[in-house]
């Protein structure tokens, strides 16, 4: 299969998962809920991955603004960043939040070249911005009304360089409904 065909099937599979995910009871009485998520972890580029998101749930639909930063090696490797708008499915129970989402993102970054280019050695060349398809899964355990801990799994499919990551995250919630 071609790369374009693989991307189409991945998007279709992600949408099916978003629409069919069940298993948690939805809280009654509060249709809107928001949280901030910030995490650090591993990136498929080979080193540090960071993710941050603003998430707004309306009924079972998730709207998110997400950014990621991914490095090959700290200070010397390639760097890829994305900033995306995502939509997906969210479900909450009294102790957990689980969400799956996808959307559209702008991917930028830079490639590091080790050839000497001045006093300090290597140099960076920026990539041209491209559109990507961001994917993410958030699994959050509630620790209190306003805070939680989570696992954040993210990916971006794009024409520059695909990447994924997993991060442990701290979550600030807008007053979790009891």
Explain this structure to me?
With 178 residues, this protein is mostly beta strands. The protein has one domain. It is built from one helix and nine strands. An eight-stranded antiparallel beta barrel has the order 1-2-3-4-5-7-8-9. The protein is elongated and about 60 Å long. It starts with a helix and ends in a 5-residue tail after the last strand. About 8% of the residues have low confidence.
Quick overview:
This protein has one domain. It has 178 residues and is mainly β. The longest helix is centred in the first third of the chain and has 18 residues.
Count of β-strands: 9
How would you characterize the largest beta sheet? 8 strands, antiparallel, barrel
**Run of helices and strands:** HEEEEEEEEE
Which structural category do the helix and sheet elements fall into?
A: mainly beta
Termini separation (Å)? 48 Å
Task: Domain count, please report it.
Answer: 1
- Arithmetic mean pLDDT: 82
Number of helices: 1
Helical proportion, percent range: 10-25%
List keywords for this structure.
178 residues
What does the secondary structure layout of this molecule look like, with pairings?
Layout: H1 3-20, E1 32-43, E2 48-58, E3 61-71, E4 79-92, E5 96-113, E6 123-126, E7 130-142, E8 147-158, E9 163-173
Antiparallel strand pairs: 1-2, 1-9, 2-3, 3-4, 4-5, 5-6, 5-7, 7-8, 8-9
């Amino acid at each position: 299969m071609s790369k374009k065909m693989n991307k189409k099937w991945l998007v279709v599979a992600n949408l099916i998962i978003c629409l069919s995910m069940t298993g948690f009871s939805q809280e009654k009485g509060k249709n809107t809920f928001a949280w901030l998520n910030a995490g650090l972890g591993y990136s498929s580029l080979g080193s540090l991955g960071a993710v941050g998101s603003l998430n707004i749930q309306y009924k079972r639909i998730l709207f998110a603004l997400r950014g990621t930063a991914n490095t090959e090696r700290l200070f010397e490797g390639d760097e890829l960043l994305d900033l995306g708008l995502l939509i997906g499915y969210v479900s909450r129970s009294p102790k957990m939040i689980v969400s799956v989402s996808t959307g559209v993102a702008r991917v930028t970054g830079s490639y590091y070249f080790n050839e000497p280019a001045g006093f300090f050695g290597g140099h960076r060349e920026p990539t041209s911005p491209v559109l990507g398809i961001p994917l993410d899964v958030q699994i959050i355990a509630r620790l209190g009304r306003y805070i939680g801990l989570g696992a954040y799994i993210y990916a971006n499919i794009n024409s520059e360089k695909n990447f994924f990551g997993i991060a442990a995250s701290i979550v600030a919630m807008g007053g979790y409904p009891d």
